[in-house]
Amino acid sequence: MRHLMARTEVSSRERIRLYVSTILFQWLLATIVAWRALGRGLTFSQLGLAKEPLASTVLVSLIGATLIAFGHWMNLRRLAGSKHPAAERLRAMAARLFPRSAKETVFFTILAVTAGICEEFIFRGFVVAALFGAGLSNWMAVAVSSLMFGAAHLYQGKGGSVGTGILGIIFASVRIAYHSIFPVVIWHTVLDIVAGIAGARYFATRAAGEADLSSGQP
C-alpha cells in the first residue's frame, strides 16, 4: 500500500493484477485455515457454517444489507466534498485502487465477494470459534476478534483501522447472536461493493479530474 500510495498513477492492468492476487491469496488463506480448523476438531456449527440459514437469519441479512448499502453510499457521497483528512486519504486511495472501467468493476466485485466470504470465515468464523474454545466469554471474543480485524486493515490508516474494528464489533456480535456467519458475509460483501462503486464515482473520478487540471490536460 505504501508503494501504491506513493505512485501518482496506477494503471488498469496493475489494479486488476492487485485484485486477482488478493483474491487468490484470500482463498488460499481461508482454505488453509479451514483445513487446520477441521483437522483440530472444530465443527461446521462452531465455525458458524449452518447448512441452511433460518428465515430470521435471512431476513436480518437482507434488511442489514439494504441499510448498509444505503448508509454507506450516502456517507461516501457526503465525504466526497469534504476537506477532512480522512476524506483526502480516501480520495487518494480511490484514485489508485478503485475500479474505473467495466472490466475492473467485474474483478473488483469478485474481490468483494471473496473478501466477504474469506474474511468473515477467518475472523468471525474461525477466530471466534477458537476464542470460545480457549474459554473466552462472548464479549471477550467480540473484543479480541475485532481488534485483530482492525489490525488487519491498518493499511487504511489509523482512522480506517479503528472504524473497521468498530464494524468488527457489530459483525462479531451478530455472528454470535445468530450462530452463523451468513448475515455478516452478506453485509461485508455489500459494504465492499458499494465502496468500490460509490468510491469510484465520488472519489476516483474527482481525483482523476483534479489531477488532469493540475497537469494542464483538458
Attribute tags:
8 helices, 218 residues, globular, single chain, mainly alpha, disordered C terminus
Plain-language structure description:
- It is globular and about 50 Å long.
- The chain has 8 helices and no strands.
- Helices cover 79% and strands 0% of the residues.
- By secondary structure, the chain is mostly helical.
- Helix 2 packs parallel to helix 5 and helix 5 packs across helix 8 (182-215).
- The chain has helices at 2-5, 12-39, 55-80, 85-97, 102-133, 138-151, 157-178, 182-215.
- The longest helix is centred in the C-terminal third of the chain and has 34 residues, at 182-215.
- The relative contact order is 0.16.
| Beta content | under 5%
Largest sheet, described in full?
Answer: none
Q: Any low-confidence stretches, pLDDT <50, length ≥5? A: 209-218
The topology string of helices and strands comes to HHHHHHHH
State the secondary-structure class: mainly alpha
Roughly how much helix do the residues carry, as a percent range? over 70%
Q: Give the mean pLDDT.
A: 87
Q: Name the overall outline.
A: globular
Number of DSSP strands? Answer: 0
| Number of helical stretches of at least 4 residues | 8
The number of domains is 1
Termini separation: 30 Å
Rg result = 18 Å
